[in-house]
TrEMBL record:
It comes from the Eukaryota. Pfam families: zf-C2H2, zf-H2C2_2. Keywords: DNA-binding, Metal-binding, Nucleus, Repeat, Transcription, Transcription regulation, Zinc, Zinc-finger. Residues 53-80, 81-108, 109-136 form the C2H2-type domain. PROSITE patterns: ZINC_FINGER_C2H2_1, ZINC_FINGER_C2H2_2. Residues 1-48 are annotated as: Disordered. GO terms for cellular component: nucleus. InterPro entries: Znf_C2H2_sf, Znf_C2H2_type. This is C2H2-type domain-containing protein.
Length: 145
């Protein structure tokens, strides 16, 4: 028997319960295995273990073509994301977004134990390890970053 995945929440806007027609059977045939837990099966599909996309320059391989393309741009030296305030350029848009905080002064990562704030979560992790190692629940805070 296959599990069922609800396509809608238990309650729809008009107050009625979702009809039985709003469910579909979950099939794990994509994985070639029985899976009693659809979340586990969905994760396997989302993050496949095979990495068929191989870089021609180095020995890295990836599970998605888009990840290979992003990686290959590191070999070419092409940096399409450029800062309009200085000469900084990067291969990844997220790196430019973090860089822009140096110009705006935005510091969204704040320490729970003192008034320290920073632009990067990695810098907050370093701060917590250096200055608040003995504080309660520091490891939990670090895990959440």
């Amino acid at each position: 028997m296959n599990p069922v995945i609800n396509l809608f929440p238990p309650s729809v806007p008009n107050g009625e319960t979702a009809a039985a027609s709003s469910t579909i059977p979950f099939s794990s045939s994509v994985l070639d295995e029985e899976s009693p837990n659809e979340n586990k099966a969905q994760k396997k599909r989302k993050y496949p273990t095979s990495k068929p996309f191989k870089c021609n320059v180095c020995d890295r391989s990836f599970n998605q073509r888009i990840h290979l393309k992003k990686h290959e741009s590191k070999h070419t030296g092409i940096k399409p994301y450029k800062c309009d305030k200085c000469d900084y350029a990067t291969v990844e848009r997220s790196h430019l977004r973090v860089h822009m905080r140096t110009h705006t002064g935005e510091k969204p990562y704040k320490c729970e134990y003192c008034d320290y704030a920073t632009a990067q979560n990695s810098t907050l992790k370093i701060h917590l390890r250096r200055h608040h190692r003995d504080a309660n629940a520091v490891d939990e805070v670090l895990d959440g970053l």
